[in-house]
Amino acid sequence: MLRQLLQKRHALVLALGLAASGTALAVETGLHQVVDGIDVYYGILPAKVASKHPATHEEKTMHGGVPTGKDDYHVLVALFDRKGARITDAQVKATVAELGMAGTRKKLEPMRIEDTVSFGNYFALYGEGPYRVTIEAQLPGTAKPVEAVFEYRRR
Ligand SMILES: [Cu+2]
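Above: query sequence and copper (II) ion SMILES. Below: predicted holo structure tokens.
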């Protein structure tokens, strides 16, 4: 069980492109919930962190290119089924909203990195927060999306 969890976390770290920068940031920004038996891993980090990666990194070109503003953040989700297999065919959306505000809802695009598929997009976080990040994942053959809500604070 622990080994499985570590593998998942490792997969998320890889997906976030943080493998070289150690685990501290990944632990700080990566969160996990189990909803209806689906493991939902969530990460958020400043876009400028992603843009420091080598030019060959796929992240450079995804979601229309890496925004460079200090308020631009990359939201990333990894999904695993009850058997621990990575889910690659979900329709994933995220709403990022400062508490009490309507926020921004966007599709999270499939991101293929290192032979894994995660889902991500960029969001602008202009306020101080805290933010509520709502992940909706529609899995094939299911009636209603899996929903996970995370809170995020800029620091
Ligand atoms: Cu991405």
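Residues 2-152 form a domain with the Immunoglobulin-like fold (CATH 2.60.40.3340).
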